[in-house]
Amino acid sequence: LVWLLVLSLAWLGPALGDEEKDGEVVAEEKKEKEEDEVLSDEIKEEDNVLVLHEHNFARALSEHQLLLVEFYAPWCGHCQQLAPAYTRAATELKNESSLARLGKVDATAQTALANEFNITSYPTLKLFRDGNRTHPLPYTGIMDTQGIVRWMQRRAGPSATLLHDTDTANAFANSQDLVVIGFFKDLKGKAAQAFYEVAAEMVDMQFGVAEAAELFQAYGLSADTICLFKKFDERQTNFPVDPARGLDTAELTRLLRVHSLRLVTEFNNETSNQIFSAKIPHHMLLFLNKSSSEQLSLQDGFKAAASNFRGEVLFVVVDVNGYGADVLSFFGMTPADAPTLRLVKMENNRKYQMEQDSFSDTAIRTFIQAVLDGKVKPHLLSAEPPEDWDKQPVKVLVGKTFEQVAFDETKNVFVKFYAPWCSHCQAMAPAWDELGERYKDHENIVIAEMDATANELENITIHGFPTLHYFPAGPGRKMVEYKSARDVETFSKFLENGGMLPVEPPVVSEVRDCLPPQGSPQPLLGEGTDPV
Q: Torsions phi, psi of 11, nearest 5?
């Protein structure tokens, strides 16, 4: 038995050793295979999206004339939200045998590519044309399937349809609710090329071009002109090209956006993007209940006033029980407040309330002109102050009490402006409460907070959450914006040093000079990207 055991071990020993050795070989071969795949320039696809890395990127550029690349991070919520639309767009473009393809790069793993193309947020989309690696174009379209497809299609083919005769031009002009036709004596000239650039960007409109003399004559034109054709309001709007200045792409884009909107636009899911992208400096809003025929009749006077302010004021109807219900809180309103009128200055979201009960076109025109002339004070939201607003370590401010507390010349007041729904504010809340506890008995330091979604201030505009401002004691109504670390120790160091830190001291400005944010129709919302 002993000999049998010895012989068995002798036979099995080499076999076990070989099996162990074979396992090591298989693992090593698998590792080498994975490394070869990474180092290879082979281009794989996931749901018709090219999977790119530093070893196959050059090949992808050489094989695809138009390549839109998404630089993403696996953990990025905005990237995850975009993914289904991006894959559907990739599939649609591939199925139509387009020159355009879509690719993606995991920028957290492919750091060399991320650094090369200066990726600072996710997702970032860049278009590479004709293999050009040094000057990719930023994606400027809408982040959905059709937005991506249309944006790429405009770059894959002519951005404007060439119209040869009156029959094709008339058919084209009547083919959509909005059509733009550029009439140029020379389609190779600078003005025409600028027009093609605008057409490539404005993918939500159809663009045509014409140079035939008979078309100039048919439309009563004698020089280069861009014509906007609409099936509502005025039928045709002409924008002559200035012979001296040429065609300015930004100005033409603005004019087309302004004039493509109806004189009065209803706020809904289809029009919201148009309303905010038009960049009209003032919005006049009529809030009404569309189920009330009496309130619906108020639209007549509203529309009659609109033509006087085309391009300066956008007239919008908001149904308080429909799509517009979600914006009522921004104005401190409820459906019961309808019908009512508000004018919004878009650069700083200042709101102006028309006090009188008349909804006539004359009254509306008079009110708007008074606001434009600076003769009307803004209507500022303010919650009611809680009974115990000054009894807690962190004082609770509202619009009505802010002035007396923040500009108390005997106190140094540190204020947090927050939004109840803001995750960053929620994360900072324990530190702010601890700071309040630390300074609750200090004779001249006050820690306070204000809900900036329910309270507004005339000379201070809050355009992000949380925003921290320090109001030092003494005359002069000074304000210091705090931009450093959001922890108790750094806050304390800031306060003990009289509202400044040794490194990167915040900029001091007069409150009246505090500049409003530029051009954001929906301030305080994210940009749709996550920082690197």
A: -70, -45
Determine contact, residues 295/289, Cβ cutoff 8 Å: yes
Specify the 3-state DSSP secondary structure of 240.
strand
pTM: 0.64
So what's the pLDDT on residue 531? 52
Residue 277: per-residue pLDDT: 79
Q: Which amino acid is at 418?
A: Y
Look at the block and give the residue holding tokens 């997702």. Answer: 123
Out of 3.40.50.300, 3.20.20.70, 3.40.30.10, 3.20.20.140, which CATH number does the structure's domain 161-259 have? 3.40.30.10
- Whether the Cβ atoms of residue 134 and residue 265 lie closer than 8 Å to each other: no
How far, in Å, CA of 147 to CA of 143, rounded? Answer: 6
Residue 435, Cβ density class (10 Å: 0-12 exposed, 13-18 middle, ≥19 buried)? buried
Per CATH, 45-156 and 395-497 having the same topology is answered yes
Structural contact between residues 32 and 78, judged by C-beta atoms closer than 8 angstroms? no
Q: If residue 53 lies in a helix (H) or strand (E), which one and from where to where?
A: none
Q: What pLDDT is stored for residue 97 in this prediction?
A: 86
What contacts 501, CB < 8 A, 6 or more positions away?
Answer: 484, 490, 493, 494
Quote the CA–CA distance of 336 and 353 in Å, as a whole number: 16
Note the pLDDT of residue 5.
40
Which residue type is seen at 278? Answer: A
CB-based contacts of 297: which residues, under 8 Å, 6+ apart? none
Q: Which residues of the chain have pLDDT under 70?
A: 1-39, 356, 502-532
Contact between residue 119 and residue 71 where contact means Cβ atoms under 8 Å apart? yes
What CATH number is given for 395-497 in this structure?
3.40.30.10
pLDDT at 530: 52
Give the pLDDT of residue 329. 85
DSSP string, 250-274: HHHHHHHHHHHS-SEEE-STTTHHH
Q: What is 265-373's CATH number?
A: 3.40.30.10
Q: What is the pLDDT of residue 28?
A: 59
* Residue written as token pair 């045998």: 97
Contact 192, 209 (CB under 8 A): yes
Catalytic residues: 76, 79, 422, 425
The model's pLDDT over 385-410, given as tens digits with 9 standing for 90+, comes to 999 999 999 999 999 999 999 999 99
213-217-221-227 Cα dihedral, nearest 10 degrees: -90
Q: Which residues contact 90 (CB under 8 A, 6 or more apart)?
A: 47, 48, 49, 101, 102
Neighbours of 528 (CB within 10 A): 11
Domain ranges of the chain: 45-156, 161-259, 265-373, 395-497
Residue with tokens 């014409």, as numbered in its chain: 210
